[in-house]
Amino acid sequence: MLAKETLQTQLHQIIDDVLAAAKLHQGDLFVLGCTTSEVVGGKIGKASNPEVGDWIVTTLLDVLRPQGIDLAVQGCEHINRACALERRVAIARGYEIVNVVPALHAGGSCSMAAFKHFDEPVEVEHIQAEAGIDIGDTSIGMHVKFVQVPVRPTLDTLGSAHVTALRSRPKYIGGQRAQYQ
């Protein structure tokens, strides 16, 4: 199995690359989509690993919390890709809380880890995060606000899982006379 230190080192590099590109601010929301099955070399949904999910979520929280960036963790399709997040974030953003608790094969290892490490975890169906990472091609695009811009981290794998990332930017409006920041 993948060593914890190796996984954390890889994940730190990926997070650093995404945060540098996304230029997030305190209070922004960062979404994680992850299949631990793919991280450990299995097929999505077939080799879930709660220990690896715990390592991934705690590593993200260790980086994001000091910056005031909130984490949302997308569950699998068996809970309609609902996201775990802190109750205070759901309320502040006006998200409707739904009644489900993630389990190993209905939500996944990372969602379970979020429920373990969040102060007051809840699930919501739809979010609008400012950026996020997708570990294992779990399709986080539905949870990143428009306009989405791909981010290419230096490392494109975490363990055996393919990694992609997204950030958002404000829409460009106007015409040829418009000026942009």
Automatic annotation (TrEMBL):
<dbReference type="Pfam" id="PF04260">
    <property type="entry name" value="DUF436"/>
</dbReference>
<dbReference type="InterPro" id="IPR006340">
    <property type="entry name" value="DUF436"/>
</dbReference>
<comment type="similarity">
    <text>Belongs to the UPF0340 family.</text>
</comment>
<protein>
    <recommendedName>
        <fullName>UPF0340 protein ACFQ5J_07445</fullName>
    </recommendedName>
</protein>
<dbReference type="InterPro" id="IPR028345">
    <property type="entry name" value="Antibiotic_NAT-like"/>
</dbReference>
